Amino acid sequence: MNKIEKFIHLNYEELIEDCFGQWIGFWYGDANFTLEETKEVFFQTLKKLLDDDLVVLFPPYTMFNTKISRWDKTKTTIKYGQTIWGLPNDKIIEYIKSVFPKDIKDENDLKLTNFWYSEDCPQIGWIDQETGKISG
């Protein structure tokens, strides 16, 4: 297990408690990680949350732009009573990596802040494990 995987394993439950109902954010990491390692923690953690069926993502608004052809904007599914993004989790992560700001300097970079509110960023929904309802 590499240091990123170990960090995620050791801090996963705390992350779920701290972030339920909101984006996991980019602050989640270790102060000793490089920016690239912090990005990888984010992507791997999001993938794990998706794989563990703790969160769902809704297609980003940009998917409804008719000029976009690379990503399947019609792939949705009904889950927990809501229409969610139906792409496989690895494809969702691939999409997010492709639109994630490339030249940010740190976790406080305005480009990163703008990304969370942009039409390129999918919306997250947390699945309440007791009720099955989505919140976020």
Describe this structure as you would to a colleague.
The protein is of the alpha+beta class and 136 residues long. It has one domain (3-135): Orthogonal Bundle (NMB0513-like), CATH 1.10.3510. The chain has helices spanning 3-19, 35-51, 89-99, 110-116; strands spanning 55-58, 76-79, 82-85, 123-127, 134-135. The chain has a three-stranded antiparallel sheet with strand order 1-4-5. The protein has a two-stranded antiparallel sheet with strand order 2-3. Helix 1 packs across helix 2 and helix 2 packs antiparallel against helix 3. The longest helix has 17 residues, at 3-19.
Name the structural class. alpha+beta
Instruction: List low-confidence stretches.
Output: none
- In the CATH hierarchy, the architecture is Orthogonal Bundle
CATH class: Mainly Alpha
CATH level-3 fold name: NMB0513-like
Concise structural overview:
The protein is α+β, with helices and mostly antiparallel strands. The protein is 38% helix and 14% strand.
